[in-house]
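Q: You know discrete backbone vocabularies at least as well as I do. I have my own habits and do not want them to colour yours. No explanation is needed for now; the record alone will do.
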Amino acid sequence: MDTGGPARRVIDDRFELVGRLGGGGMGVVWRARDLTLHRDVAVKEVRPPDPGLAEYDPEAARHLRERVLREARALARVHHPNVATIHHIVDDGEGTYPWIVMELVTGGSLQNRLDKGPLTPGEAARTGREVLAGLRAVHAAGIEHRDVKPANILLRPDGRPVLTDFGIAAGQEFTSLTATGSIIGSPDFMAPERVAGRDGGPAADLWSLAMTLYVAVEGHHPMRRGNTLATLAAVLGEDVPPPRFAGPLTGLLTALLVRDPEARPDAEAVDRMLAAVAEGKGAATAAAAVSTTTATSYRLPPPAAPPAAEPGAGGAAQAPTRPPAGPGAQRRRRVPGLRALAVTAAFAGTVLSGAALWNLLPDSGGDGDDSGAGPRGRVTAAPSPSTTSGGSPAGEPVNADDAGDNDDAGNGDEAADLLTPEGIRTAVAELEKVMGGTTVTQLAIYEEYAIAQAPVKGDKKLYDRFTYRAGSDAAVHDGAGGTITDGTVPVDLGEYDWDAVPGLLRRAERTLGVEKPTMRYVLVSPASTVFDTGPSMNVYLTDDYGGAYLKATPEGEVVATYPRENG
């Protein structure tokens, strides 16, 4: 690394640090200039909460470094418009911590937006649904966010939310307590199970999303207290008070903000309810959107009764008056009494092991991390691609009744499903118009959108990103992507047999061991001269616990199957 003197720091001889954007439990984020691609990026300087970790516990420091690299690489494989893109990883080897280079999101954070005033239920639902889509994508990759809050949801200039600051490497062993007694994460947005030191899983991220939406519509945080211990005690031992201004969102918030993670609706049910609210279908329809899909797994509490209406002019009922907006006007509930203090004492004895102090890390204000900062979470090991297992032997063709079938193979509304031959052809045709061709280095096709990476015209080393959403009039150019991996041989989408996709999806449902997938997608991968592999069409099925996939040739012939382990 060339520091370039006291006034200039250049990382990896390429990324010049311009200014500090924010900091948190796992490092500092900088705005930087990519001197090679001539663009601004966000660079996260990863470092542990305990500065002396490498000295007094070198094994833990080594483990942290390995986890950072593993999880950053896993997140780098997530291509989703609501997740900040990782461009590059700088790793100087043993004894150092990596630098993570990410896209720079310039529209400010959701927290910045909320400082100007609360959102309507419809606005919150639309934002929440896109954030949920990003969460589902990272959960499918085996990553948990662990710190969903308004400051970690950035907004693109068009208002689209982007998940950032996954707080790389704060897995279970790093989440609860560090050697200095700090917690990694924001106590007021953490799910009770994580506060208690347990590994929360995807359900804990859904709690944090619900709390974010609660704050967005109510204009205050219901569990925040005068100090960190009191806040933690409230999260552990108190019920979340019913929202007053959530309207049709009330049922969902009530269902998600319960201490038992098993009682919370799953991501698919949450998406259905957010969609109903976003489309203005009202509280009853929104509640039905959840109850019809999850009636066997939990009971949806009835929406809280609205505050008593006061007679207005002519006896008309008036809506309750919303508290003034802004951080200085947030309502504070009374510091908990004896019962909460008893919980605090018990919590301090079991989790803090005596007199260790808890330090509240930066959250929604001040020096919060409002940059494009990267990943936190536990990674579920993916099946090894070096061997073929389960399902069928390599080279076995798709069954005759599985191939060339144009019926609907997706989960969602047929009219909005791109995972059909016609849907894929439409997406490819629209992408071709903005890409100037059908040559790509990767294409990911989901039910509602497709994301392509295409080489930059005149430069074989760089690629741009493009997105097409189902039902849109046209695809869009999302901007610069990054550097094409050495050995990548771009592929022509015209060489793929999209008629084979429905059969591949059915084959995946039978052989991958994912009984109730919440997400399915097709990933078109290029050939590689480095790994001596040809182009492929991979079909993925995922749920909240991970995923599995099968690999096929561009013609639809299955060559490998990687089912869920123990599935």
User: Anything to note?
Assistant: The chain has two domains: 10-306+336-351, 414-562.
